[in-house]
Write a structure and sequence with these properties.
The protein folds into 2 domains: 80 residues, Glutaredoxin, CATH 3.40.30; 116 residues, Glutathione S-transferase Yfyf (Class Pi), Chain A, domain 2 (Up-down Bundle), CATH 1.20.1050. The protein is α+β, with helices and mostly antiparallel strands. Helix content is 57%, strand content 8%.
Length: 219
């Protein structure tokens, strides 16, 4: 089987989710670092690789994918490991898919889009969009409350009793809010979940580089 090639940035939340799963599943992959803050995604060379000019982008044989959750589900179908990460049971899988679809316009918008607007947007485009900042703040608090309610009843964010890729995707977004020292004291269940997911060895491994890079991003 051809080697998986991943173009990613450790400061990108979806990139870290894909890299974390590669570590969990012990997938041999070739890593190409792309620095979003340096404008690497807009180069002519990268644009030929990724039609969306975004990370992560994966190449496997003739297949090119540039949407992180599509990459994750493809890798799971190609490199089978324990069932909990993306269950074969149709109801459990539907719950994981439910989270993955909800994630984009809620936790991703409230965390990742907020940080892009505050840190990378001004460097690349010279502006912080106030409307996006305000909407992101609302989405984040609403999303955190939804997660808190879920974690009152279940151990994991996809309403499952075992950890899944939904937890990896969600963790990578929320942990990056350390940049703005987000306060989770209002959400004790979410705070506890964050600590539990952060102790997964492969999560620790992929976030080691992120934590080293973190001091460079001052707001």
């Amino acid at each position: 089987m051809e080697q998986v090639v991943i173009y990613a940035d450790y400061m990108s939340q979806p990139s870290r989710a894909v890299l974390t799963y590669c570590e969990i599943a012990k997938i041999p992959y070739k890593f190409h670092e792309i620095r979003v803050i340096n404008g690497d995604t807009f180069t002519e060379e990268f644009s030929k690789i990724s039609p969306s000019q975004s990370v992560p982008t994966m190449i496997h044989g003739n297949l090119v994918l540039y949407e992180s959750n599509a990459i994750l589900t493809y890798l799971i179908s190609s490199f089978h490991i324990s069932d909990n990460w993306y269950p074969n049971d149709k109801i459990k899988r539907a719950l994981v898919n439910n989270y993955l679809h909800w994630h984009h316009m809620n936790i991703r918008f409230g965390c990742g889009i907020y940080l892009f607007n505050k840190t990378i947007g001004p460097k690349l485009f010279g502006i912080v969009m106030k409307d996006i900042e305000n909407l992101s703040n609302e989405k984040r608090e609403e999303g955190f409350q939804v997660l808190e309610n879920i974690l009152e009843r279940y151990h994991y964010v996809a309403e499952t009793e075992e950890v899944s890729i939904a937890d990896i995707v969600c963790y990578c977004e929320i942990i990056q809010m350390m940049l703005v020292k987000v306060d989770l004291k209002k959400y004790p269940k979410l705070e506890n979940w964050l600590e539990r997911i952060g102790r997964i060895p492969e999560v620790e491994k992929t976030h080691r580089i992120f934590f080293k890079l973190l001091p460079r991003f001052k707001l």
